Amino acid sequence: MIPYSRQSISKKDISSVTKVLKSNFLTKGPLVREFEKKIAKTFSSKYVVSSNSGSSSLHLACLAIGIKKGDIVWTVPITYAASANCALNCGAKIDFVDICDQTFNISIIDLKKKLKIAKKKNNLPKAIIPVHLGGQPYEQKEVWKLSKKYNFKIIEDASHAIGSKHYGESVGSCKWSDITVFSFHPVKIITTGEGGASLTNNKMYYEKMLQFRENGIIFDKKRLIKKSKYAGYYEQVSTGYNYRMNELSAALGISQLKKLKKFINKRNQIAKKYIDELKNFPIQFQKIEKYNLSSYHIMIVKFNINKLKLNYKQIFNKFRKNRIFVNLHYSALHLNPYFRSLGFKKKQFLNSEDYSKSSLSIPNYYDLKKSDFNKVIKIIKSII
């Protein structure tokens, strides 16, 4: 089987986890904080709050900026459900902005139009959650300018984009956002098994995320309402969740982080080979802007279905029959049953709908064998 992506685990990774199993702490030990510090240093952010998943980190980000019932939050249709659920779980209303048909990220043209209309109707979003699809940074500078003009917060869904750069700035520096969220799921660039992180330069957001991650409990002596003399004293000041990362995950993350550049370089090399091999075929690759470095978490190919022998379903099945586990990232969110029940319908976001009917993620990961790469190329050429 050839997956579209997978983790790369070394003997050193295994050793780091085994060491934790022999230690006194499997959770709430020193490694989680060490991992957070290393993430902050690597991506030039002031504060980091780790969690047990990227989805949890998105929820923490929404809670931190005060998303509540009645608020409006926008994201894109081409994303994982968590990009919308994080706001919905706070009681907010969700809406979408269509993607650009070249970069597959949020369309700046559509965003500007939608903001103008929303201002006239007095229903501007409290926050926007743009997605760095596949690791390609969205137009961060442009969205940041609009956030200042229309007064909304930005939560970057950078689940795909750890190690990516925009105009030389690391995604995660929060230069053009309020909070950035990473995911460490096994198919991502680096993994902690399951895990996530929220990065920010805002101390208040940082403290809020810590609080909500710990069931609404604070341990910081400076923030306690009652001043106590004993070390173990804490106070619950709100409700919250158990979104903590454990020590095993943190140990793996620390080990994996050392290999980030190596992983990204290899993914970029493989991406270039795909593009070179298939440049004369009726296939569209995601446009990577010259001022961006993509982590290439996923390698997206968009087929010109009208010029091919097979339809989309037949193309998908041909890969699967040949044990190549391609995937779709993603089915347009607004057309899923839950969002249809909220009133969304076909032909609202045309680029996203077209993308969902013609795109696939093909294998790209650090340990991809040359023979497996050649097999993928062979199948694609046979389709065309």
List keywords for this structure.
single chain, 384 residues, alpha/beta, Aspartate Aminotransferase, domain 2, Aspartate Aminotransferase, domain 1, 2 domains, 3-stranded antiparallel beta sheet, 13 helices, 17 strands, globular
What does this structure look like?
It is globular, with a radius of gyration of 21 Å. The chain contains 13 helices and 17 strands. The strands form five sheets. Strands 2-10-9-6-5-3-4 form a seven-stranded mixed sheet, with helices on both faces. A three-stranded antiparallel sheet has the order 8-7-14, with no helix packed on it. Helix 2 (30-43) runs parallel beside helix 8 and helix 3 (54-64) runs parallel beside helix 4 (82-88). It folds into two domains: 2-257, Aspartate Aminotransferase, domain 2; 260-383, Aspartate Aminotransferase, domain 1. The protein is of the alpha/beta class.
Strand order of the largest sheet: 2-10-9-6-5-3-4
CATH architecture of the largest domain: 3-Layer(aba) Sandwich
CATH topology of the largest domain: Aspartate Aminotransferase, domain 2
Query: What's the helical proportion of residues?
Result: 25-40%
What is the average of the pLDDT values? 97
- Number of spatially distinct domains: 2
Oligomer: single chain
Q: Measured on Cα atoms, how large is the radius of gyration?
A: 21 Å
* N to C succession of SSEs: EHHEHEHEHEHEEEEEHEEHHEEEHEHHEH
Characterize the overall form: globular
Count of alpha/pi helices: 13
Counting DSSP E segments of at least 2 residues, the number of strands comes to: 17
Beginning-to-end CA distance, first to last residue: 23 Å
Quickly name the level 1 CATH class of the largest domain. Alpha Beta
